[in-house]
Design goal:
Rossmann fold; Alpha-Beta Plaits; 3 domains; 7-stranded parallel beta sheet; 5-stranded parallel beta sheet; 16 strands; 30% helix; elongated
Amino acid sequence: MARPIEVLVLNQIAPAGLKRLPPERYLVVRESDRPEVILVRSADLHAMTIPDSVLAIGRAGAGTNNIPVAAMSKRGVPVFNAPGANANAVKELVLAGMLIAARNLVPAVEFTRALRGDDETLARRVEEEKKRFAGFELPGHTLGVIGLGKIGSLVADAAIRLGMHVLGYDPEITVEAAWSLPAQVRKAHSLDEVLRASHFVTLHVPLNGATRGLLNAGNLTGLRAGAILLNFSREGIVDESAVLAGLEAHRPKAYVTDFPTARLAGHPGVIALPHLGASTREAEENSARMVVEQVLDYLEHGNIRNAVNFPDVVMPREAPYRVAIANANVPNMLGQISTAMARAGLNIHNMLNKSKGEMAYTLVDVDSPVSPDTAAAIRRIDGVLGVRYLPLEA
């Protein structure tokens, strides 16, 4: 009997996800020199040496900044994440942030917490001071949503149900995301249009080279006076210096963020939360289940869903013998793979190849067993990064 596959868990991954790993085939460990899988939440994989035994990395969440994705791509190792699994949790926190800011709840709570005296004294002070905390209601105001993926779409839908107008901006929107977007969302043609027109602006984009400093000194001056800016996406998407300068001019009036820093701490215009976006039991369980199921499907059938560095490749089994090949996206790769299989007398039953940037991935189902020599011949093809033979168990 083959030894179980070692799954190294570096953070607290919800048991609801880990239970998806069949115990007769997978061994969950907290320490290992030669794991085949790494499951992680926030642990910094840049700071560790990832063994060459690793076949896949699963991030129980959306962001993968803590994982050396480029280095894993060069090794043909997919990095899976769980986009959308925490979407409802983030949506609810965005709505809470809007209400907290609109109704001045933070200073109001601080005021009542500091009250001292008997009931009569407190009642008098409350009546005298409550007008300082008067806010406004959400219906009729405009919410600008920057980034219309799963979270942005849910936020837009919830805001519409609350009676708000929604202005959406996402030049990279996918067809799938566009289909799921509420019809009442009005399309903005530029970031500046959103900033000028919105009473609230919320960010829901990934952090990458194109989005780092997306809101900065150059465009925050165009923000509507008195607007409220919400960042539950990633810290680096907003230029902190520009926000602090903007707060002095009420552009924005308030900055609600899930990413507290030393510079933001204590500023009266900042409402900072301790990275609570995905901190619900439901979100943690959804993320764990989603990423474990994706890793399992990859290990056992070669299918790829939601790998940040690989294309989505899903092919139903039509033959008992499957070869999964990770390769550089270069010309004539399929021809060389087919030639190697033909020389071995293998009949290709089905084949699927897709690419994503510099990475490509190929699944091949054949009608007879694949020998170690044939797998080695494919592995020797220039540009092939990894080959796995995945026969169905009898």
